[in-house]
Design goal:
Blueprint (H helix, E strand, L loop, with lengths): L6 H12 L8 E7 L6 H11 L5 E2 L2 E9 L4 H14 L4 E3 L4 H6 L1 H7 L3 E3 L13 E3 L4 H14 L4 E7 L2 H13 L6 E2 L3 E3 L7 H9 L4 E5 L6 H9 L6 E3 L6 H7 L7 E4 L15 H15 L6 H21 L7 H11 L5 E2 L4 E2 L15 E6 L2 E4 L3
Parallel strand pairs: 1-3, 1-4, 4-5, 5-6, 7-8, 7-9, 7-10, 10-11
Antiparallel strand pairs: 2-3, 12-15, 13-14, 15-16
Pfam families: Peripla_BP_6
Keywords: Amino-acid transport, Signal, Transport
Family: Belongs to the leucine-binding protein family.
């Protein structure tokens, strides 16, 4: 039988057979977060920032696949599986809550897909290769709180926080850092994100007569201890975690939030920072774009973390493209390697520098303190 296929056709088939089935020109990034549910006030800004993401990176089109996990770790895992198994993404951003982000670790490791957590997490050494944390590590932020307490003469601090990993991270950091500053911790009270009352816990805190109270909570549920402490007559300093810094918290807490102090990233008060601050330009540029889309005064740290994750991916893509096409294991591995190459990337919150040994990648330039005054956050200088 005579061969009727011409050379051009045979060449086409050769290319098809030699090209990995999953290779493509399009870069795909999966994003999962708490866009509904009790923690939606935290998650929605991430989604709003994602709507401003570029449609191209390094000349390649980008598909940003956004899914809601409603703060449910099981849903976060299902979304991660969809990203890796069905969409064959090149990287995962999320989740926006620590329990969800942690639950996704195994999917990222098993599929060898870089995961940039959008919530502060502690990454086990055995899983570090594929997991990067974008928000500041909790000890970095709590250190700012403890330093301020010590400077103000606080000797005893009461603690109340969530029953989940966010409450644990803040309490553990406080336990680790406070004793070195001569500060004792008088309580370790906990509550659930959906609880309607913390009166019993607050009474226990007040019974120890603390000089200050630290609240390890986030989003709108962080308001409850602040309100209850003030309603119970407590007039001492109230410190909140960086997960509480949002417009929604100020609106829900009203007068009870006045004078409260919290650590946060420089983005929140970028216009009040010195011009020499290393993240000021990136933060101002982002705030301008974000508030142009979502309205004046809508800036928040959570949207900034999403933007910084995008900046990190964008900076890593060019080098990864030299190793493989999007959609391939070679590209994902090269993307991971490019992320941890030790290059400094100025974001809205930090000057990030990941290495093979450090996937948290931030230092003390990534945190400041803010105080609530007249219903708004303001820079609290040292």
């Amino acid at each position: 039988m005579r061969n009727v296929l011409g050379p051009a056709v045979w060449m086409m088939w050769a290319v098809v057979l030699l090209t990995p089935a999953s290779a493509r020109d399009e870069i795909r990034i999966g994003i999962t977060g708490t866009f509904t549910g009790p923690a939606a006030s935290i998650g929605i800004p991430y989604k709003q920032a994602a709507e401003l993401f570029p449609s191209q990176i390094a000349g390649h089109s980008v598909k940003w696949i956004v899914l809601d996990d409603a703060g449910d770790p099981a849903a976060a895992v299902r979304n991660a599986r969809r990203f890796t198994d069905e969409e064959q993404v090149d990287a995962i951003l999320g989740s926006t809550s620590p329990p969800g982000a942690i639950a996704m670790f195994d999917v990222a490791v098993e599929s060898k897909t870089p995961q940039l957590s959008l919530a502060p997490v502690s990454v086990p050494a055995a899983k570090r290769m594929w997991i990067f944390s974008v928000p500041q590590a909790v000890p970095v932020m709590v250190s700012a709180v403890v330093d301020h307490m010590a400077a103000k003469g606080v000797k005893k601090v009461g603690y109340i926080g969530f029953t989940d990993s966010w409450g644990d991270q803040n309490y553990n950091a406080l336990v680790r850092l406070a004793p070195a500053k001569g500060i004792t911790i008088s309580t370790n009270e906990r509550y659930n994100r959906v609880d309607a009352s913390v009166t019993a816990q607050v009474l226990k805190i007040l019974a120890t007569k603390p000089d200050a109270v630290f609240i390890g909570a986030s989003g709108s549920p962080a308001v409850l201890p602040n309100l209850t402490l003030r309603d119970s007559g407590y007039e001492g300093p109230l410190y909140n975690s960086h997960g509480s810094v949002s417009r929604a918290v100020l609106q829900a807490g009203g007068a009870a939030m006045e004078g409260t102090i919290a650590p946060t990233g420089p983005l929140v008060v970028a216009d009040e920072l010195p011009d020499s601050y290393p993240t000021k330009k990136a933060a101002i540029d982002f705030v301008s774009a974000y508030e142009s889309r979502w309205g004046k005064g809508t800036r928040n740290p959570f949207a900034g973390y999403a933007w910084d994750a995008m900046l990190l991916i964008s900076a890593a893509v060019p080098a990864a493209l030299s190793a493989g096409e999007p959609g391939t294991a070679e590209f994902r591995n090269a993307l991971r390697g490019s992320l941890e190459a030790g290059k400094e990337i100025a974001g809205t919150h930090a000057v990030y520098r990941y290495t093979a040994e450090d996937h948290e990648g931030v230092d003390q330039r990534s945190r400041i303190l803010v105080v609530v005054k007249d219903g708004a956050y303001h820079y609290l200088a040292n």
